[in-house]
Write a structure and sequence with these properties.
Oligomer: single chain
Strand order of the largest sheet: 1-2
Low-confidence stretches: none
Mean pLDDT: 83
Number of helices: 9
Strand content: 5-15%
Helix content: 55-70%
Order of helices and strands: HEHHHEEEHHHHH
Structural class: mainly alpha
Number of strands: 4
Shape: flat
Largest sheet: 2 strands, parallel
Length: 203
């Protein structure tokens, strides 16, 4: 009887694990196909598991597997996954930037004392996470590299000649070519510089 019960339990556990994995595959594929940029928090699951009230729920949700799937599927489909710091995302007002301080987990809604905006805790945090991710995208190119990228590839039917770029930016032609090389290395994950420009200005 004990052996039979052990086998039955293992069978049910495997069935639950397979259902969870199937759901994660479906939701991550849908997200990656639907969005060009996905921003997530760099959550430390080990630290979260120290909260004994939430540990079981967190472990059952397989957050690490969810992130792992997003990472390799974004590479497959040529999409951008940005991972940002989770610090204060639920404490900062996404409208005015006011830091309202730490709140207990049971506080799901709050009003910013500075601008009086009513926030849902999770929606406010998600907006802050997205804003951080877009800022990270903008850091990919330096100001001068970005100028070269837009002049050479951005919105022209034909790439601008290096001599013209050099004249426009006030640099020599060799410097313009070196900047162009850096741009192509950094943006090889995008289909075009225009796509990169649209991503960082989508707010």
């Amino acid at each position: 009887n004990w052996q039979r019960a052990r086998v039955t339990k293992a069978r049910y556990q495997a069935k639950i694990a397979n259902k969870r994995k199937d759901y994660l595959h479906k939701i991550t594929t849908e997200l990656v196909k639907s969005y060009d940029v996905i921003v997530i928090e760099d959550l430390k699951t080990k630290n979260l598991l120290k909260n004994h009230h939430l540990a079981k729920s967190i472990a059952n949700n397989s957050w690490y597997l969810f992130r792992e799937m997003l990472e390799y599927k974004c590479k497959w489909y040529g999409k951008q996954l940005v991972v940002v710091s989770p610090n204060y995302t639920s404490q900062i007002c996404s409208r005015c930037g006011y830091h309202s301080g730490k709140k207990p987990l049971d506080v799901r809604e709050w009003i910013c004392p500075k601008c009086n905006t009513h926030h849902d805790r999770d929606i406010n945090a998600s907006i802050n996470i997205l804003n951080r991710g877009l800022k990270e995208l903008k850091k990919i190119l330096t100001k001068r590299e970005y100028d070269v990228a837009i002049l050479r590839y951005g919105f022209y039917s034909e790439p601008m000649k290096f001599k013209d770029i050099a004249d426009t930016l006030g640099v020599n032609e060799k410097r313009a070519q070196a900047l162009d090389l850096q741009v192509r290395k950094k943006l090889k994950k995008y289909n075009s510089v225009k796509e990169y420009y649209e991503l960082i200005h989508q707010k």
